[in-house]
Specification:
The protein is an all-alpha fold and 78 residues long. It has a domain at 4-36. 37% of the residues lie in helices and 0% in strands. The longest helix is centred in the middle third of the chain and has 17 residues, at 20-36. The protein is elongated and about 70 Å long.
């Protein structure tokens, strides 16, 4: 449950008064700013996870994309 002071703030009241479509558009603006400001959608490593392994961690490439490349250029030879 939210505290009464938080819910009654002007920003929260303005947000609650918006229609779902207006909230969606405002959220899009926030995501756009987040990505423009250098934010990343890559997962953060979680050292507390039972699936976390230092051997599986890889550095993120400078261009921000995965390092996928072709293993074979030709088809499979019979």
């Amino acid at each position: 449950m939210m505290k009464k002071e938080i819910v009654e703030s002007d920003e929260w009241l303005a947000w609650y008064r918006m229609t779902p479509a207006e909230r969606w558009r405002e959220s899009e603006k926030l995501w756009s700013y987040f990505l423009t400001a250098g934010g990343s959608l890559d997962r953060e490593p979680d050292s507390q996870s039972p699936f976390s392994s230092p051997r599986l961690r890889r550095p993120v490439p400078a261009h921000g994309r995965t390092g996928v490349h072709f293993l074979r250029r030709g088809g499979i030879q019979p």
